[in-house]
Each structure stands twice: as C-alpha cells, then as structure tokens.
Amino acid sequence: MFKNLKIGTQIALGFGSVIVLFTVVSAIAFLGLNNTYQGFVDYRGLALDNHFSSQIEANLLSIQLNAKEFLVSSKDQDVQEYKRHLEQIHGFLEQAKRLVQQPERAALVQKVDQEMARYQTAFTEVVQLVHRRQQILSGQLEPNGLAMRKAITEIIQSAYADQDLEATYYTSRAQEQLLLGRLYVLKYLNSHHHEDLDRALLEMEANVNKTKQEMDAALQNPQRRALFAQFDQAHTTYVAIMKDLFQVTEQCNSLIENVL
C-alpha cells in the first residue's frame, strides 16, 4: 500500500511528523512537492547544517515553480531552470551522503535521493508528453480541422447558390456539430474534465457520423460530391488524431495526479 502512494507523500511519511507551515504550503501546494518540501523542513530539524538545508529548501521551491510554469506555458526555458535546480539538489544530497553519519539520518538522506530520482523520471515523461501533445495539436489536428471547415463551407455556399435546400440543411447541421466538437476539444485541453472529453466525442464522432450519412444521401451535384469526399477524409483523420490527443493528455494527467 505504501508503494502506491505519491512520491511526495512517501517522503513525508518517511520523515515522520511534519512541521506545518501554512504560509509556505499555501504557496507551494502544487504537484505534490509540498510534501517533499515539508519533509526537508523536518530533515532540517534533525540537526543538519542550517545553510546546507536552506539551500535544499530553496532549490525545491524553485523546482516547483519551474514545473508549474512549464505546465502553464510549455516553455523549454522552465525545463532548463528546473534541471539546473535539480542538479544543485543532487549536489547537496551527495554532500549529505558523505557528511551525515547518524544511521537514521543517513537512511533518510538515501530515501530522499531515491525519491527525487523517481520524481525526475516522472517529470521527464511529463515534459515529453506535453511536447507530443503540442505536436499533435498544431501539426495534425489543426490542419485537418481547417480542411474540414473549408470543404463544408464550400458545400454550403454551392448548395445555397443552387437553392438545394436539403443539401444546405444537412451540411449546416454538420457544420454546427463540427464547431461544437472542436469547441469541446479545446475546453477539455484547458479543463481536463471528462465531461468535456465525452461531449467532444459525442459531437465530433457520433453526431457528425450520423449527419454525414444524411449528407451522403442528399448531395447529388458532382462538385459537392467531390467536396464531401474531402470533408469525409479530413473528418475521419481528425477523429483518429483527436483520440490520440486525448490519450496523451490522460497519460500526462495521470502522472501529475498520481506520481508527482
């Protein structure tokens, strides 16, 4: 059961009683590192040198800030700063391994070093997933979304010009469903709420697929048939990419919630 706890929680439990610093915790309660920080406060209370432990605490706060900034902005600059502070923490821990002689404290230093390594592995994977999500969104999803919109707009304009009311009606319905689907994709990426994910799938997959069948039956004009084929292909690709995007996002969220 202990192994299933988040890394920060394991560190805190290993340290025993935690000094509750409400003003500090309110500022750093993010990604589970508040537990790690509290652990080091307790660690400092075990008679390590004041300056030495203060340096570890300061770098932990900086790591948390860098991680938070990266998840908000996705800037590599924040990752580089994170790595710089992490390297400093490892340096201080190596010093502690050499200087701390008391068995209980030495075991605590070793435990912290191991859990920081696990945290580093998890955060590295989060960075990779965030980059993958950006590539899917800008390199694949958006171009196919543009192709869908372009094709369906041209169908509506052509059908309206020819006063083909049936074709105009069904294509307009598909356009509305596409707009709703794309809206809820963006809402999910911001909120990470499963209700937004489910609504995006409902509109973009189930509803549009049904309307596509009605469009297929209603569209007779050769030009509009060709545009429909383009739309159909772009939509099918969009749905597949959208699901890939959701999967990557869920993996990233799982690491943040359960490991970090």
Quick description:
This protein is an all-alpha fold. The chain has two domains: 99 residues, no CATH class; 127 residues, de novo design (two linked rop proteins).
Explain the overall architecture.
This protein has 260 residues and is mainly alpha-helical. The protein folds into two domains: 2-100, no CATH class; 132-258, de novo design (two linked rop proteins), CATH 1.20.1440.210. It is built from nine helices and no strands. The longest helix has 59 residues, at 103-161. The radius of gyration is 26 Å and the shape is rod-shaped. The chain starts with 6 loop residues before the first helix and ends with a helix.
Strand count, sense and barrel status of the largest sheet are: none
**What is the mean predicted local confidence, pLDDT?**
82
The coarse silhouette is: rod-shaped
CATH fold naming of the largest domain: de novo design (two linked rop proteins)
Query: Helix- and strand-based class?
Result: mainly alpha
Query: What's the CATH class label of the largest domain?
Result: Mainly Alpha
User: How many domains in all?
Assistant: 2
Q: Tell me what the CATH architecture of the largest domain is.
A: Up-down Bundle
Q: Note poorly predicted spans.
A: 11-32
Give the helices and strands as they follow along the chain. HHHHHHHHH
Helicity, in percent? over 70%
Strand content is under 5%
**Rg from C-alpha positions?**
26 Å
By DSSP, the count of extended strands is: 0
* Termini separation: 17 Å
Number of separate helices: 9
